[in-house]
Write a structure and sequence with these properties.
The complex is a heterodimer. By secondary structure, chain A is mainly alpha-helical. Chain A has a single domain, classed as MetI-like fold. In chain A, strands 1-2 form a two-stranded antiparallel sheet. The longest helix of chain A has 41 residues. Chain B has a single domain, classed as Orthogonal Bundle (MetI-like fold). Chain B is 75% helix and 2% strand. A two-stranded antiparallel sheet of chain B has the order 1-2. Chain B starts with a helix and ends in a 7-residue tail after the last helix. Classes of the chains: A mainly alpha, B mainly alpha. At the A-B interface, α1, α2, α5, α8 and α10 of A face α3, α4, α5, α7 and α9 of B.
């Protein structure tokens, strides 16, 4: 294998990876900027007798937080599902048997190359609204569960790719020496290769968690009562005044930023720690 | 054009029940064509804007003024760490409420349409990633090359134009491909502010005709074709620009 003179690892710079330099100071600057803009929205003149936009926002705050809790719940469940299925798919991708390998590679590429919104539409319309139990009982599947499955799918494809990449990044010497010690292929994978992969796979895995959380607001298109849908309902209930739009959406941006930014910082730290 | 393949799809519907009515019904075909052209234009302009922002941002990140640098970092952080969908809603509804409307004689039309807001918002979102990619490309140009240029009496500007930029562009091309493809997929989000692009149009079609699975397959195919086209065009460019003597 020839080595390039100067190479940029595309995986390091794609939209799925954090910034090369992050510090908590940036976050602090931004928090101040956000607060300042909220203040300026508050300072806007409102006709007397009606609550100002900020007062309305404060009234609806618990409702929006309740929705945000559903966002978090969806992100946790979807990530768990995506991890289990994605690791399985990734292991199928490195199988030596081609009838297993090629379909799993196809599925991985399909899931990775479709827009999240399209996958969401497919799952929301194609999954049945209720599940018939073998005994005859019927269990209704709530919309948010279907949305969770939909968010898990693209992440599953990407985790599968992470697993494949991590296994391939382990030096061949490890495989050879395991063979020299008379390990079988499955033993080598189980005891030697995969434990080393975990370390390498954790930063990209956390990144995908952040991306997953950032796409959960899409569920509001299907009137799942998460943060965005609740904020919109709140604005409607407060009289659908146009001056509400700016502070409400700005607040939503802040809310997600406050949750995601620490994760990005933490991912970056782990990445530096695990650098090989 | 519809006369060409129309009968085939009509027969397909009659014999198998697969209703691809966008290919034999003139009205639905027009809708489909509008959606496709809107989608492609949206992708083109969003990618274009994100590239411009990337180039300007990479330059701003190496600015002497600390204020410009911090501002650039803040911009990147905000747009990388918030949901693109809320960004779209914020731009369209939040900022859209502040921009003036034009009286079109009887009804008023906002100065900046939903389509324009989608382009701006997605361009800014994608640009946040491009800045970082271009900057790393510029950083990855070896110092020794720049010193060699200096020893050949290149001026600072000449070094930048003839040495740094061509090399940096080649280095950042693979990462750029990834990001542009990802941005092209994200344009389907313009659905939430009712831009009549592919996702939105096919949604209307399947609501009117109850042919959900067929139209979904079409939607998948559309995005796979677009993504493949962008990726292979950029890979071709990468191969054409490859420096002789380097690479596999």
């Amino acid at each position: 294998m020839t080595v390039r003179a100067f190479v940029l690892d595309p995986a390091k710079l794609s939209s799925q990876r954090p910034l090369s330099f992050l510090s908590w100071r940036h976050g602090l600057c931004l928090a101040v900027a956000f607060l300042a803009s909220l203040m300026s929205a508050w300072a806007q003149a409102t006709p007397p007798g009606r609550p100002s936009a900020i007062e309305t926002l404060i009234v609806w705050l618990p409702f929006i937080f309740q929705g945000f809790a559903l966002n978090l719940l969806m992100s946790f469940l979807a990530m768990a599902l995506a991890t289990v299925l994605g690791v399985a798919l990734g292991l199928m991708q490195i199988s030596l048997v081609w009838p297993i390998r090629s379909p799993s590679r196809f599925i991985t590429h399909l899931l990775r190359n479709s827009p999240w919104l399209v996958i969401l539409f497919v799952v929301m319309y194609m999954l049945p609204a209720e599940f018939r139990m073998p005994g005859g009982g019927r269990v209704a599947i709530p919309d948010w569960v279907k949305a969770t499955v939909a968010f898990a799918l693209p992440v599953m494809g990407n985790i599968s790719e992470i697993v494949r990449g991590a296994v391939r990044s382990i030096p061949t010497g490890q495989w050879d020496s395991a063979e020299g010690l008379a390990f079988t292929r499955s033993q080598t994978l189980r005891w030697i290769i995969l434990p080393q992969c975990v370390r390498r796979a954790i930063p990209p895995w956390m990144n995908w968690y952040a991306l997953l959380t950032l796409s959960t607001p899409m569920a509001s298109i299907f009137s799942v009562h998460e943060a965005v849908a609740n904020a919109q309902a709140g604005m409607e209930a407060a009289g659908a005044r146009p001056e509400l739009l700016f502070p409400f959406y700005l607040f939503l941006l802040c809310l997600f930023f406050a949750y995601i930014y620490p994760i990005a910082l933490w991912t970056r730290r782990l990445e530096r720690k695990y650098v090989v | 054009m519809i006369e060409l393949f129309g009968p085939y799809f009509r027969r397909l519907y009659d014999t198998t029940g697969l209703n691809y009515n966008v290919f034999y019904d003139q009205y639905e075909f027009d809708r489909f064509a509008t959606g496709a052209s809107n989608s492609l234009q949206l992708i083109f302009w969003a990618l274009f804007l994100s590239l411009i922002i990337g180039v300007i941002g990479a330059w701003a990140q190496s600015a002497k003024s600390g204020f410009v640098r911090v501002g650039m970092d803040a911009y990147i952080q905000v747009f990388r760490n918030t949901p693109p969908m809320i960004q779209l809603l914020f731009f369209y509804f939040g900022l859209g409420a502040l921009t003036p409307s034009v009286d079109m004689g009887g009804y008023s039309q906002p100065l900046v349409s939903a389509y324009a807001w989608a382009t701006i918002s997605l361009g800014i979102f994608g640009g946040a990633f491009n800045v970082e990619i271009f900057r790393s490309g510029i950083d990855a140009v070896p110092d020794s090359t720049l010193e060699a240029a200096e020893s050949l009496c290149f001026s600072k500007w000449q070094t930048y134009l003839y040495i740094t930029l061509p090399l940096a562009f080649r280095i950042s091309l693979p990462a750029l491909t990834n990001n542009l493809v990802s941005l092209a997929k994200t344009t389907s989000l313009a659905y939430v502010i009712a831009v009549p692009e592919m996702t939105y149009v096919l949604n209307q079609v399947w609501s009117d005709n109850v042919n959900v699975p067929e139209m979904m397959l079409l939607l998948f195919l559309f995005y796979i074709v677009v993504v493949t086209a962008i990726a292979s065009a950029l890979h071709l460019l990468e191969r054409k620009l490859a420096l002789p003597g380097y690479g596999q």
